[in-house]
Amino acid sequence: MDFRQVIGRQRSYQYFEPWRPVERDKIQVILEAGRLASRAVNTAFSKAIVTYRDSLTEEERDALKTPLSATLFDLAPVYILWYHDMDARRRAVEERKWPTVASGTLVEVGALGPPHGWSHKYVQEVILPEVLTPGLDSGPQRGGNADASLAMQQGLLAALDEGLAATLAPFDEAGAKRLLHIPDTWEPVMAMLVGYPAESWEAAGQEPRPPLEDVCFEQAVGRGFVRDPEVHERLRQAGMIQRESPVPWREREVRALSRMAELPSD
Amino acid sequence: MAVDVAAVRSSEATRAWLSSRAAYWGPGASQAGFVETLAEFCEFAGKMPDEILSECLRPSKEGGALVLRVRARRQYIDAIERFEAQTGSRKAANVVRSFLIYNGVAMNPSILP
Amino acid sequence: MEFKAVAGWRRSVRFFEPWREVEREKIQAIMEAVHRAPRVLEVDFVRTVVVYRDQLKDHELTAMKMPTTTAQVDMAPVYVFFYADLEALPRAATGDNFRELMARGVLNRSHGWTESFLEEQVLPYLRGIIDHPDRITMRTRTPDGDIEGPSVSRAHLSLARSAIGIAQEHALLAAFDEGLGAQLSALNTNIANGILGVPNTWTTSSPMLLGYHGESRETGGQRPREPFEEDFFEMRYGHPFYREPAVVDRLTAAEMIQPTAPLPWRKDELRALARKFGLPD
After folding, report:
1. Three-class SS of residue C207?
2. Nearest-angstrom CA–CA distance, A100 and A63
3. Chains touching chain A at 3 or more Cβ pairs under 8 angstroms?
4. Which chain B residues contact residue A117 at CB under 8 A?
5. Superfamily classification of domain A3-200
6. Domain C3-214 belongs to what topology?
7. % pLDDT > 70, chain A
8. Is residue C67 over pLDDT 80?
9. What is the dihedral of CA A102, A103, A105, A107, to 10 degrees?
10. What pLDDT does residue B17 have?
């Protein structure tokens, strides 16, 4: 699918076809995409565990739910739980097992070389002790890591590209830890709920956002990025910008979907 | 300060530089004239290669690991820029930068316009 | 461009054409892609600042560099800074965002979304994140010492950073879709925040450098990764998700998976780039 269409199809999808399994190869595509995402010092801060609604008992499913995600866990056939591995940097520094900055690989493959002032000795004598090692003594630190969600989001876009619906929602950390044997050093990011959409691709329509110029600035905070309407129109034609919610038929669609899934509607 | 090219060539830092650089780029990367250029800079700075390096990277107080001395690095960045201005040669200045880079001191000159 | 090819051609580009400015319409397309990124818990965390290198004063650009900053900062004509506004979550905890989504048919009664559900379950859940006792005080490092910012829970900060990562992902891919190169890079964000007038209630991550490729699109090949099975598991940790080779073949045909670095000619290219920009080798 064209990239702009994929971006335009982004929604908080709420209705999946609970009876339709997701082909395993499509799940692999999601993970493969996540694996290729940008990441600092080429280190794998992002981890994921795939689990299937129908492989869990009702009690186990309930253990994963939060108020914001309960029904989603009942409808989506696949859950991909994404985590931030708080121990990734320490392992990269101490083990140097995989191709990271710490292991010298980026210098060796010419991603970062002498033209940028880098050499193996610089990695060993400066980057390792002065950039990558400080702070490791205090152990794994919570507070998130943007890199973990870079991978997650690249996976989510791949799901949309594969013709699936996917939505991000919080999950119960303790329940997941017990159920999936999550290491202590993994901090939860989000659950990605995946399945075939039971609702139309438009769902409710694109969800509202604050005006662009209130959240995107040019050269300094306060100087709003003013949209060029012609560019906006071109992006609309390319499918990145679509009709805003609610689409006119949404109420009827939701009623029908609720009947179909035997969910409350009044 | 008169600098003996042979002494520059035999210094530990020079040998480490040339062997690391040859290992990185392979046999096709010429190093002809590099030691002479470095010797010119040594004369300009009044320091021998090992001295330059030990000013930029010194053992930590706890011993063992080397620590990059930011001020010394800054001084050599400036000195190399002056050397470049004096020689009128970015190429010569980059030889000196290469010496420092392969010895663990990052150098990031401005790009040429 | 097809999505899979965009993901496959994305690299951390470290050589840009310094003389070639980026058309504003392309920047707008990138920012619109960021604007469409999913919101973590439907919270409007994300803020961005587009900075044109040539509109910065020399001393400002110099001050933004760190000892580990490399030549690509001088090459890239545009920098995009990403932030999460930490006040966005307390604002969302009033429920207004959710009420709007309920009114628009995004969140529905079928999933339990009613005013009482919002008041009794969702908003307390958000307050639990905001008020969690595991807290951290945000600090800004300055030459005169640290300046204390707000105290936030680590769970709150984690959501904010996730929101930044999602936005960065959209920005990076949109840049490559526009035929540009980009990289998340290291700059002194404390200094940059002062120059850009960023409030101390915004937290940040790596800015994105943006420009036309100064090196080949391949940039030496896709960066090597640890084995797939190290990162992805099925049903429980320790049980790797089996990697089916046929899927790898399909993604290779779609240009998402490409030859891994180093390509055989990378070092020749790198030395040529050093000559092109007057950099050492």
Report:
1. coil
2. 36
3. B, C
4. 97, 101, 106-108
5. NADH Oxidase (3.40.109.10)
6. NADH Oxidase (3.40.109)
7. 100
8. no
9. 60
10. 98
The encoded tokens of residue A163 equal 């013709």
Q: What is the bridge-based pairing of β-strands C46-52 and A216-218?
A: parallel
* pLDDT average, residue stretch C137-155: 86
Extract the tokens encoding A137.
């003594």
Cβ-Cβ pairs closer than 8 A, A with C, add up to 385
Q: CA of B6, closest CA in chain C: separation in Å?
A: 23
Q: pLDDT band for B23, please (50, 70, 90 cuts).
A: very high
> Taking CB atoms and an 8 Å limit, are B111 and C280 in contact across chains?
no
Q: How far is A135 from chain C (nearest CA, A)?
A: 15
- Average pLDDT over every residue of C145-158: 91
Question: Pairing relation of β-strands C236-240 and C145-153?
Answer: unpaired
pLDDT tens profile B75-103: 999 999 999 999 999 999 999 999 999 99
A126 vs B contacts (CB less than 8 Å): 57, 66, 68, 104-106
pTM: 0.97
Are A210 and C44 contacting, i.e. CB atoms less than 8 angstroms apart? yes
Nearest-angstrom CA–CA distance, B35 and B56: 20
Q: What residue type is assigned to position B109 of the chain? A: P
Tokens of residue A231, six digits: 């560019």
Q: How high is the mean pLDDT of chain C?
A: 96
From the list C154, C133, C141, the residue with the least C-alpha distance to C86 is C154
Q: Does the ipTM exceed 0.90? A: yes
> In chain C, what residues touch A29 (CB-CB under 8 Å)?
247, 250-251
Cβ(C63)–Cβ(C188) below 8 Å:
yes
Would you place residue A146 in the very low, low, confident or very high pLDDT band (cuts 50, 70, 90)?
A: very high
Of C70, C71, C157, the CB nearest to A144: C157
| Contact by Cβ (8 Å): C241, C229 | yes
Range 104-133 of C in CB contact (< 8 A) with A: 104-112, 117, 121-122, 125
| Among A93, A88, A89, CA closest to A124 | A93
Residue reference for tokens 């470290």: C14
Q: Which two tokens stand for residue C153?
A: 């829970």
**Which stretches of chain B sit within 8 Å of chain C by CB?**
21, 24-26, 29, 68, 70, 73, 90, 94-95, 97-98, 101, 106-112
